[in-house]
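Aim 2 progress update. The chain analyzed this quarter is reproduced below.
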Amino acid sequence: MSMRPVGLPEIPEQTVRVARAAFPKGSLAIRVRDRLAEVFADEPFTGAFGVRGAPGLSPGALSLVTVLQFAEDLTDRQAAAMAVRAIDWKYALGADLTDTGFDPSVLSRFRGRLADNGMERVVFDRLLGYCKESGLVAAGGKQRSDSTHVISAVRDLNRLELAGESVRAALEALAVAAPLWLAGKIDVAEFAERYGPRVDGWRIPPSETKRDRLAQVFGQDALALCQAAWATDAPEWIREIEAVHLLRQILVQTYIIRSDARGRQVIKKRDTDDGAPPGQLRLASPYDADARWAAKGDDLFWMGYKIHLTESCGTLPEAEAEAEASPRTVPNLITDVHTTDATVPDVKATAPIQKNLTAHGLKPAEHYLDSGYPSADLITKALKQGIHMVTPVLLDHSAQAKAAEGFDKNAFIINWKTRQVRCPAGKTSSHWNPVKQHGKDAIVITFSVLTCRDCPFQKQCTTSRIGRRMLTLRPEELHENLARARAEQKTDTWKNKYALRAGVEGTINQALDITGIRRARYRGLPKVRLQHAFSATALNVIRLDAHWTTGPLDRTRHSRLARLSYRLSA
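Predicted C-alpha cells:
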C-alpha cells in the first residue's frame, strides 16, 4: 500500500449545505475540521507507508476518525458506521453524502502501522504544537502529573492456568504456521483433547493432588515442544514464532528442570525456595508479552500497564504578566502522556516526563506531583533545569523520627568542610565513609562506641546493640535540598499551594469516563501507548471545543432560582 500526501480533501458543497442545515450551531466534528484541519496532515505519516502499490486511504483522515472515535468511545465498527451515516463526520472528512465509507478493519491496520513505526504520538504532538502556536500552552507555567492503573486486554491467569494456556497458545500458532511439522512431533488427538478448550479455573480439578499432577503434565508437554522446536533439525523460523518463544520463557519461569539419580530429566514446578524472575521480567499471559502484574497498597492488584498524564493548570506566564490589563484564561490541556508496564514505579517516570516536556518546549516552572514521584536526586536535577517540583517528599524513616521522640537527623549539626557531625550532646563523629547504596552515592557517619557508651542521651539516640549511633546521609547538595523540602512541606503556605495538584484527579476521571482509559483496548505496550496518545488527543479536542464554544469555565454551581434571577435582571 502506498500513500500520496494530499491531506484532508476539500468539503463538497452539498455536504457543507446539509451539515450547516443539520447543525446550525455546529458540532464537535465540524469545529475540529474548521479549526484543526492542519493538524491532520498526511506528511508526518510518510515513513509508515510505501511508495509503491495501490494508494490507500489518507492517514490524516484515518487519524481524524480515530480521534473522533476516542472522543465518543466507539468501537472500530461503530466508528466506520459513523463515517457513513453521520453528516458532521462526513463534513469533517470532506466526504460526499453518497460516500460508502471504509471497512472497519482499516482502522486496525492503520493503528498497526503507527505502532510498528513508532508513530503513536504523531497526532498528539501535532495538536500540542498547534496549541503552543495559538498561545494556549507555553513553557514556564504550572503543570501537574498523576498516574493510574490500566487493566490489560487479556484475561487474568494464575500460575497453573498460565502454564497450560501457554502450551495451548503455542499449539494453536504451530497448527496454522507448521501443521505438518507439528503432526510429526506430537500426538495430535491427545493434545487436541487436552488443549482444545481454553485452560481456565472451571476445568481445573479441585483436588490439590490432581492440580499438582496437571501442572506436571503441562510442564512435560511444554518441555517436549521446546525441545522439538530447538532441535538441530527443526527450522529456525519455528523458534521465531512469538507464541513458541513465549512458551520457552514461561517454561523457565514456572518450572525447574533437574536430573535424578539415574540421569533422567525431571521437571518440577517452582516453589518459593526455587526463586522466580523479578516482576518486571515475569510474563503474565501468552497473549500479551508486555502485560505485568503489579500491586498498589493492600487493595489494588492488577495485570496490565500504568499511564501518567500531565496537564497545564492555571493561566499562562505571559497572561499573568498582563493580568491586570486584560485577564486571560486558557483551558487546561494535557501536555504529556507516558505509558509503562505496571511494574514501573512512579519515581522512574518523573525524568522521562520532564524530558518530554522540555523537548516540546513546554518545560514547567512548577511541576506538581504526589509523593510517589520525587527523590533527592530528581529534585536536585530538576532545580538545575529550572523546574521546581512541588511535591511531598518522604519523611525521615529512622526509628527516632517515626516515634517522634529522641534525636533524628535534624538534631545533628553537619560540617561538610571538615567531614564531621556533632551530636546533641556536643560529641563529634569518628568516621565519615562515602559509600554506594543501591547504586547511589551516600555517606555513612559513625560515632565511637567509647563516645556513646557513657552518654546520658544514649537511650534517646540509639537502640543499637553495639551502643553507638550511625547516620546515613546523601551528598551535601542532595541532603540540603531534601531537608529544605521536608521543612517547607510542613508550612500552611506550601499546603495551600499544593492543593492545585488535586485537579489532575479530575482529568483522570474524565479520561476514564470518556475514553475508558483504565482498560486497554489492544494487546502490547506499543498499541496501548497508541491508545493512550489518541485518548489524550481526544480529551484535548473536547477541552478545546468547550473553550471555543463556552469561553471560560464557570465553576460555580448556580441554583435554578439564581439562574432565573440572572435572566430577569438581564
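The CA atoms of residues 139 and 174 lie 53 Å apart. The mean pLDDT is 89. These observations will guide the mutagenesis experiments scheduled for the next reporting period.
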